[in-house]
Specification:
Keywords: DNA-binding, Plasmid, Transcription, Transcription regulation. The protein folds into 2 domains: 15-102, Winged helix-like DNA-binding domain superfamily/Winged helix DNA-binding domain (Arc Repressor Mutant, subunit A); 107-265, Chorismate lyase. The chain is 29% helix and 31% strand. The protein has helices at residues 30-54, 65-72, 76-88, 117-122, 142-148, 185-188, 195-201, 221-227, and strands at residues 19-20, 27-28, 92-95, 99-102, 107-110, 128-139, 155-165, 168-178, 208-217, 235-243, 249-258, 262-265. The strands form 4 sheets. The chain has a 6-stranded antiparallel sheet. A two-stranded antiparallel ribbon has the order 1-2.
């Protein structure tokens, strides 16, 4: 028996085999029941996120559990599960005895030729932190070599990072720097967690974004763990190339960004 498309109230308990559906006359296994309940809280989570983006909550405060339960047609326990997940993801903050509030951590990023992401966020009064997961010199893969315009056998410095905004993870990914154009980069990162600062140490104080490509997908298990989100939550998948003043690529990067806390702003010319 496949999973039901919609979830209805469960009928009488029918012993160790599972639960008997009152309308269909068929039993649901414990696994199917768990799937059904998870789908319910995910619907509530998605609905609350939509309201957050629309600015629907006056003064940033959510209505009570009973109001939300009535709106979504679920019980209070399901609402609380959704709120608990949203709190762990950084979208909500719960003040016990006071109420549940929208966390003021949504990021709006203007997409232009300036790749200095951290400085833009500091301008929004955000606390920005980057964690270096690993730095290694490796042989470049053919597709990355094409983007960097280097030989397929050339060495690159691969830097894996996770970025945090106000102590919650926003993005994780890997950047590749050609060793022939940025020698000593791995050493330059000592005591730093900023690619911009490390590039300055290597004699490249300025660079700009050549192009950015953005798509959407589901995160891998590792990405979901690093971003502290469900594996069913969509993420933005971004690839980009940065170039030095002479026009040669100095960085190719790809990474995933939490789609529920982030948006791109593209402005037209005046």
């Amino acid at each position: 028996m496949g999973y039901p498309q919609r979830c209805f109230p469960i009928g009488r308990f029918s012993g160790k085999q599972g639960f008997l559906h009152p309308f269909w006359g068929m039993q649901w296994s414990y696994r199917q029941l768990k799937w059904c309940l998870m789908k319910r809280w995910e619907v509530v989570r998605s609905g609350i996120l939509g309201d957050i983006r629309a600015g629907a909550f006056e003064n940033g405060r959510l209505p009570g559990d009973l109001v939300l339960a009535e709106r979504f047609g679920v019980n209070r326990h399901t609402v609380r599960n959704a709120i608990k997940v949203l709190e762990s993801e950084g979208a909500l903050r719960v003040q016990h005895g006071v109420g549940t509030f929208v966390a003021d951590d949504f990021i709006s990023h203007t997409l232009d030729s300036d790749p200095k992401f951290t400085f833009k966020l500091l301008g929004q009064n955000k606390s920005v932190k980057r964690e270096i997961l690993s730095i290694n010199e490796i042989s470049v893969e053919p597709d990355i070599a094409t983007h960097l315009k280097i030989a397929p056998s050339a060495l690159v410095t691969a830097v894996r990072t996770t970025s945090f905004i106000n102590d919650w993870p926003l993005a994780t990914g890997t950047a590749y720097f050609p060793v022939e154009r940025v020698p000593g980069l791995a050493t330059a990162f000592e005591g730093l967690n900023s690619p911009t600062a490390a590039l300055k140490r290597c004699g490249i104080p300025e660079y700009k974004r050549k192009w950015t490509r953005i798509t959407a997908r589901r995160p891998t298990q590792q990405e979901a763990r690093l971003l502290r989100i469900s594996s069913s939550s969509p993420v933005l998948f971004e690839t980009n190339v940065d170039v030095a003043p002479d026009g040669l690529p100095i960085k190719y990067a790809f990474g995933v960004i939490r789609a529920d806390r982030y948006e791109y702003l593209i402005e037209g010319d005046d």
